[in-house]
């Protein structure tokens, strides 16, 4: 027996007797000898608590973490500051050990928190309806595309090549199996080429998918994309950095029909790529088409306000074979962290985070250009991330920086062969002037 | 009990719950460097509260929830086992929680080693050859597995296989995932024993079928005794066998899907491997395959060369990526810590005890609740409230009445093939005393259904809200708070 179980040897005897069998093996009478595993699993013997902790600490210490290294890497996962209150509150067992709130009478905490999260996401995106969150930004964008295909009965998706490469890959995986086509729209100077969009959009285009700020950190012209897209009766789906929306006009205000994005930056640890959350918000008219869970307000028998999962059939009854999405969970705890973050930072704080990040990113950009070792790649407004062109190999540059305890930027040539030497640098509010200056010094050494 | 105000309702202009450093770089005019037209003029209506306001608010909300630490949570099919505290501590280590996914491989060797080692262990537990940790949840794992099946057939230029067979007792996500993977679903009936009807399977199995999705033990909590024959029927006609790992907690160290003939499995780290459910997520749904399907796994695959670990993207037959980065790493750390703590014998002990606990509950309740399948069950038992229904008390009423006894109710009305179903999964963690108290509560409710059915139908009485009007929520949806312009 392990410390996580409560049945003693004498309990076991008593229980076997009540069940009417003699041995534990008898409980598995239905498992034929041909299937019954005759040997022990080849898994190491149990370790005590202190041994497990020691082993995992030694594994963790093999990694270079962002507390000991200064991070200038972004590209979809960001090193924003997380207030201490969030970790403390999330560790309340009532939140993290609970299941999906199927029994609303004993899940009002989770349900109300999600309702508040939905409200905040609507405020940020300029939309009417938000769901309770999806797996991550990439799958949220893909779910939005599938919703557009299902509602429009059209079978083609256009996507800007400036959208995060992993999001485009995820979309293409789903498209292959779901039988819709995906075509990419090219760009000029780091922004969507409106002529290419105009040329490619057609009667069968369900939606145009774009990202702003895009993968290069550049703020796109949503208004012009909206005009072209809507003239064709296609949907405009915009993926956005949630922090940017406190500073920049919301995609909703500029004409987006669905706004999605990666919510990690809102109070969630960077955690080697997950768990994160994808947010998803849209207009009221598509309320009943939204994938995933939604919480709604109602009243109890005494007329008191309460919250329930609504508009969606529940997990075991999910639309079964007619489904247009198979999502039946949300990133509950991550969405809760995001809600706590938006609560603590609030109306003013989120904008300050956005402004600090933008100021520091622009300062870093200028300092790098001043060294003369880097050149401009694009000449367009950016938010907290930007590209410069390096004379040196990026991998070499990053390896050298790692020795100086700096995590350098993303090599754009991985995904954009024409941008050889392109280096994508991200600067959040966490970076100090000293760190930036040190980084710039070390880069040119 | 009183309503808890929304965070927006306690908000007051001028309050703040954050502190940020002064801008230490020369400040520029953002309307110049970004452009005035692009800047937001109306700020989002986010709350304005002090840190204490926020802390009190979320603490208050937490008291309106029931977690595994609050009390027994016998929610069938969900494996609500105890979430060890140690796992939370190790997952929070800086070396795991503060890693950027695009860091150089040589700066994340510990993380890659953990993922590699965890997938090896999961492969051993399931009898598979290779495991990908990328899927985010069970349904996501199903989708990945079905995509792999389709990619396999397509790669053999076998394009006629457009159908997936799913039992009538299956989890609802099975047919939904099948639809999203581009398949048509056909149903195989259950027989009088609650197992796959072999004759029916033979009839519908043909060369248009890509595969069969099965949970074993199935959703009735029963082990499919004929699993080898089922596998043979499906394989003979060129189909593949998919294992839904929702019920793996019953068979660890006892029987392995790989040895039963399954070609693809998905697991739920948040069920079987003790990671918390987080009020609805995050989960993690690794997908495992036999060797011949390994080329189709999502990219990247973690490989080991000498003593170094790598992310391998060069896999031309791969289905591609199904989420950004590598999966829910933070969840993987917890599952890994759990397996290390259990060891081989501990895992077997987990499954044996889970099965014992479920059978004990069935044995002690079958005289008052209808037991549709009179045989030994595995890690969960499915009871039915049909007797109580005759008295006007529904399964929903029984579930709601259980709330007054301090329990999270079992899963109700599932599987669909059992009327008034009550699916009880106690897990291995609970003590005999806890089980006995729960049994006593269930017996009390059965008595109440006879003596005072109206009282049961009005339950719950002790919760922060009483039964909620779900029809109203769907008919007149209120899905967000909005600033009341009249009051402002």
> SSE string of chain B, helix = H, strand = E?
HHHHHEHEHEHEHEHEEEEHEHHEEHHH
Oligomer: heterodimer
Total strands of chain B: the figure is: 12
User: Any idea how many domains of chain A?
Assistant: 3
Q: Give the helix tally of chain A.
A: 12
Can you give a write-up of this model?
The complex is a heterodimer of chains A (445) and B (488). By secondary structure, chain A is α/β, with parallel strands linked by helices. Chain A has three domains: 9-60, no CATH class; 70-82 and 352-444, Alpha-Beta Complex (Aspartate Aminotransferase, domain 1), CATH 3.90.1150; 84-340, Aspartate Aminotransferase, domain 2, CATH 3.40.640.10. Helices cover 36% and strands 15% of the residues of chain A. In chain A, α6 (137-152) runs parallel beside α7. The longest helix of chain A has 39 residues, at 332-370. In chain A, 61% of the residues are buried. With 488 residues, chain B is an alpha/beta fold. Chain B has three domains: 7-62, no CATH class; 86-341, Aspartate Aminotransferase, domain 2 (3-Layer(aba) Sandwich), CATH 3.40.640; 349-473, Aspartate Aminotransferase, domain 1 (Alpha-Beta Complex). Chain B has helices at 30-35, 51-62, 85-91, 94-97, 109-126, 138-155, 173-180, 198-204, 227-236, 257-260, 329-365, 386-390, 395-404, 432-451, 453-457, 470-475, and strands at 130-132, 163-167, 184-188, 209-214, 240-244, 264-266, 287-289, 301-305, 308-312, 381-384, 411-412, 421-424. In chain B, the strands form three sheets. Chain B has a seven-stranded mixed sheet with strand order 1-7-6-5-4-2-3, with helices on both faces. Chain B has a three-stranded antiparallel sheet with strand order 10-12-11, with helices on one face. A two-stranded antiparallel sheet of chain B has the order 8-9. In chain B, α7 (173-180) links the parallel β2 and β3 (184-188). In chain B, α5 (109-126) runs parallel beside α11 and α6 packs across α7. Chains A and B meet through α1, α2, α3, α4 and α5 of A and α1, α2, α3, α4 and α5 of B.
């Amino acid at each position: 027996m392990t410390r996580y179980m409560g049945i003693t040897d004498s309990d076991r005897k008593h229980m076997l007797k009540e069940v009417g069998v003699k041995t534990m093996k008898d409980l598995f009478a239905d498992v034929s000898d041909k299937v019954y595993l005759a040997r022990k699993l080849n898994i190491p013997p149990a370790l005590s608590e202190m041994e497990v902790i020691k082993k995992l600490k030694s594994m963790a210490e093999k990694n270079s973490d962002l507390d000991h290294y200064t991070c200038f890497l972004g590209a979809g996962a960001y090193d924003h500051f997380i207030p201490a209150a969030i970790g403390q509150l999330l560790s309340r067992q009532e939140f993290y050990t609970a299941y999906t709130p199927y029994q609303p009478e004993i899940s009002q905490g989770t349900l109300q928190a999600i309702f508040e999260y939905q409200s905040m996401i609507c405020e940020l995106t300029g939309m009417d309806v938000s769901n309770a969150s999806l797996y991550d930004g990439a799958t949220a964008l893909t779910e939005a595309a599938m919703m557009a295909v299902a509602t429009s009965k059209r079978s083609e998706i256009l996507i800007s090549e400036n959208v995060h490469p992993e999001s485009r890959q995820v979309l293409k995986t789903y498209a292959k199996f779901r039988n819709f086509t995906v075509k990419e729209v090219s760009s000029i100077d780091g922004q969507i080429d409106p002529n290419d969009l105009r040329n490619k959009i057609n009667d069968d285009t369900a939606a145009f998918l774009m990202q702003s700020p895009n993968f290069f950190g550049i703020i796109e012209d949503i208004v012009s994309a909206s005009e072209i897209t809507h003239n064709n009766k296609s949907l405009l789906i915009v993926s956005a950095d949630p922090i940017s929306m406190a500073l920049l006009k919301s995609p909703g205000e500029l004409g987006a029909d669905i706004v999605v994005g990666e919510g990690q930056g809102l109070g969630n640890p960077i955690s080697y790529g997950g768990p994160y959350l994808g947010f998803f918000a849209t207009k009221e008219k598509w309320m009943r088409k939204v994938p995933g869970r939604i919480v709604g307000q109602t009243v109890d028998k005494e007329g008191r306000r309460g919250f329930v999962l609504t508009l969606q059939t529940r997990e075991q009854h999910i639309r079964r074979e007619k489904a247009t999405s198979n999502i039946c969970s949300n990133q509950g705890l991550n969405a809760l962290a995001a809600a706590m973050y938006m609560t603590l930072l609030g109306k003013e704080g989120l904008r300050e985070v956005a402004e600090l990040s933008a100021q520091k990113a622009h300062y870093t950009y200028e300092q790098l250009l001043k060294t003369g070792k880097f050149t401009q790649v694009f000449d367009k407004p950016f938010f907290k991330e930007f590209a410069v062109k390096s004379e040196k190999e990026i991998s070499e540059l990053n390896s050298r920086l790692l020795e100086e305890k700096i995590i350098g930027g993303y090599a754009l040539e991985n995904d954009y062969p024409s941008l050889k030497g392109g280096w994508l640098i991200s600067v959040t509010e966490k970076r100090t002037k000293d760190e930036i200056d040190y980084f710039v010094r070390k880069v040119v050494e | 009990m009183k309503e808890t105000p929304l965070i927006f309702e306690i908000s007051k202009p001028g309050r703040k719950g954050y502190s940020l450093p002064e801008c230490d770089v020369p400040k520029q005019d953002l309307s110049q460097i970004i452009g005035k037209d692009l800047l937001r003029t109306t700020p989002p209506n986010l709350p304005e509260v002090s840190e204490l306001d926020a802390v009190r608010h979320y603490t208050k909300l937490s008291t309106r929830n029931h977690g595994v630490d609050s009390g027994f949570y016998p929610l069938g099919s969900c494996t609500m086992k105890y979430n060890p505290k140690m796992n939370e501590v190790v997952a929070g280590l800086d070396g795991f929680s503060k890693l950027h996914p695009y860091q150089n491989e040589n700066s994340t060797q510990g993380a890659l080693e953990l993922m590699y080692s965890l997938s090896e262990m999961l492969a051993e537990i399931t009898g598979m050859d290779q495991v990908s940790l990328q899927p985010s949840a069970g349904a996501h794992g199903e989708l990945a597995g079905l995509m792999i099946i389709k990619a396999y057939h397509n790669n053999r230029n076998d394009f006629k296989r457009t159908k997936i067979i799913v039992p009538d007792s299956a989890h609802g996500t099975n047919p939904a995932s099948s639809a999203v993977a581009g398949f048509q679903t056909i149903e195989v009936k259950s027989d009088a024993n609650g197992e796959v009807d072999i004759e029916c399977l033979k009839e519908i199995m043909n060369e248009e079928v890509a595969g069969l999705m099965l949970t074993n033990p199935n959703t009735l909590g029963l082990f499919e005794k004929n699993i080898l024959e089922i596998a043979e029927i499906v394989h003979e006609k060129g189909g593949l066998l998919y294992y839904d790992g929702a019920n793996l907690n019953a068979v660890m160290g006892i029987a392995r899907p790989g040895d039963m003939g399954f070609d693809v499995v998905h697991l739920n780290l948040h069920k079987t491997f003790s990671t918390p459910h987080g009020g609805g997520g995050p989960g993690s749904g690794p997908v495992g395959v036999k060797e011949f399907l390994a080329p189709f796994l999502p990219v990247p695959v973690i490989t080991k060369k000498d003593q170094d670990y790598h992310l391998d993207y060069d896999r031309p037959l791969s289905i591609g990526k199904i989420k950004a980065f590598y999966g829910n790493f933070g969840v993987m750390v917890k599952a890994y810590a759990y397996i290390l703590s259990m060891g081989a014998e501990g895992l077997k002990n987990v499954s044996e005890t889970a099965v014992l606990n479920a059978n004990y509950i069935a044995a002690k309740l079958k005289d008052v609740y209808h037991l549709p399948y009179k045989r030994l069950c595995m890690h969960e038992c499915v009871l039915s409230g049909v007797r109580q229904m005759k008295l006007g008390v529904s399964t929903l009423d029984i579930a709601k009445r259980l709330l007054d006894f301090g329990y999270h109710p079992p899963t109700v009305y599932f599987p669909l093939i059992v009327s008034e179903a009550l699916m009880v999964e106690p897990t291995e963690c609970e003590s005999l005393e806890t089980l006995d108290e729960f049994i006593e509560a269930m017996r009390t409710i059965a008595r109440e259904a006879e003596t005072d059915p109206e009282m049961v139908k009005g339950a719950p009485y002790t919760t922060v809200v009483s039964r909620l009007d779900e029809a109203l929520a769907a008919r007149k949806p209120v899905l967000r708070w909005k600033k009341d312009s009249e009051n402002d």
